[in-house]
Amino acid sequence: MTTATLERPRTSLLTALSDTFFRQPKLLTLLLLLPPLLWIGVVYVGSLFALLLQSFYSLDDFSGLVNHQFTLSTYAQLFEEANLQIILRTVLMAALVTLASAIIAFPIAYYAARYARGWTKALFYLAVMMPLWSSYLVKVYAWKLILAKEGILTWMAEGLHLKWLLDGILALPVIGGPSLSFSYIGTFLVFVYVWIPYMILPTQAALERVPSNYLEAAADLGADPRQTFNTVIFPLALPGIIAGSIFTFSLTLGDYIIPQIVGNSRLMIGQAVYTLQGTAGNIPLAAAFAVVPMAIMGVYLWMAKRMGAFDVL
Amino acid sequence: MPSAVRFENVSRRFGDVRAVDDVSLDIASGEFFAMLGPSGSGKTTCLRLIAGFEQPDDGHIYIFDEAVEGVPPYKRAVNTVFQDYALFPHMTVGENVAYGLMIKGVGKAEREQKALAALEMVKLGGYGARRTSQLSGGQRQRVALARALVNDPKVLLLDEPLGALDLKLREQMQEELKSLQKALGITFVFVTHDQGEALSMADRVAIFNEGKIVQVGAPEEVYERPNSPFVADFVNSSNVLTPQFASGHGGTSKWTSLRPEKIMAFAAGAPVPDGHAHADAEIETISYQGAVTRLGAAIGDMHLIAQVPAAATRFAVGDAVRLTWPKTAMVAMEGGP
User: Fold this and answer.
1) Is residue B337 in a domain?
2) Residues of A in contact with B73 (CB under 8 A)
3) Has the ipTM of the complex gone over 0.90?
4) Domain total for chain B?
5) Of A226, A250, B3, B196, which has fewest CB within 10 angstroms of its CB?
């Protein structure tokens, strides 16, 4: 009888390698993480850093050349009346779009999480996702046609004898305009339409994670449906709503196409960046403008955390 | 004694399934009442009918003689300890316990004081500020109990509250629940599939099968005098003797229950004591369980389980054995399996 050995002979290079990885799991982790870390570090953080660097340079007004000397004067330009207007306009628009998206998305998400089963659930996902599969530009131009003076909405308003209502809305100061496609209302509508899936999905995911026996427990302890909503459903859905609002808010802050196609000629941050880096060649000011949404999002996330929006995650 | 919960011919159907089928029952005020049955037997649906999460399709439910059909859960003076506790994750332990009081509009100072008292009652005095995620299963169970009891319910409903705990903790909680119920004098309705739990805690036990109550009685009664083969088998697995076997071995020609611990095992040919019946059998299985040993024995095509003191065991599988039992231990039952 031969003595059985525990170890089988291992000779090939590959088995030796896998033995090493087995004994040194951290080495394997490091090797697997290295390529993505390099990508994020060099391509992503690196270019972000370059952007930040640009914003501390300034433009020489006479030569039109970038002056590579650190200064805060470019940031000071942001606070000039015209530029401040652009920032405030954009932030206000982003806030309103986010609020409207949250309000419209919630019942849809609630229905999908609580009541939709089987084919209704499939239909829900299809309805929410399908607009995301088609081109963003196509959707925006489609909306331009819907909202234009000769568009479907005007035609429908005439057919329903509601032209007076449409005219009344368009006559409103600031948000009105010659037609919906040349007004803040139009820009707002298209923003809400385009970004709302990004609000519905996280809200629905958060609601999906609220087990129905929490609702029963609340009812059992005396809470009527409204109290249950205020004390249990809404607080537990809040992380989802916040996650959705990060999308809707930041996407609106940075977008330069929608306000260009549907809206009046007043600039938003994205458009300002676009024009400054293009025709004006003012890269430093464009970079400074680009930092604004980042700073606003930073403050926003910090406030959300302070409010305890991420405690249940 | 006034009745705390009364069912009159209550039925609840889900599609074609009769989850609760024409159930009538009367739970006295201050009673510790257990609903016992296998899963899907309708016991939990009965509890949910009392809580108000389900409404009966037929029949009437009264809580302290008030008809409650159509009354939503939040208007009923009953509280529930849920199977998986259902503690709110976005609130601290103290906020969870004070939730019912907050909903009722009790002032902050008063509800905090009451919540603290309730937490002390379940021996979690210093835990008010913790998050529920920081608690162990046993502690969560206590918080759920405190959260329900702080509202002074007229009836406390417990839905398999000890199911998720390990054996030692479960036994400890059984004792505590029992003494808590005695001290508070609140009616407890306790749903479980664990017959040991039901027998050791309850004043009365209702045994459910297929949406119906098959027997209601004190634990001793249900254990000693099962009224049907289902009860005999479900409550601590009694031997269920066929009418033919029973009538041939000292009983009547009815389905008969014979508890394993009533059967004694002797060597083949041993004398049979007075007033005893006997059967000669062959040992098929031997299962050592510490204090006792369970013998599986075959008499023709009848199989019996005998539970004998471990010290008395000197048998091997295949041995011929004489089983004897007092004729009085044979309990004739109505109906068949």
Assistant:
1) no
2) 216, 219-220
3) no
4) 2
5) A226
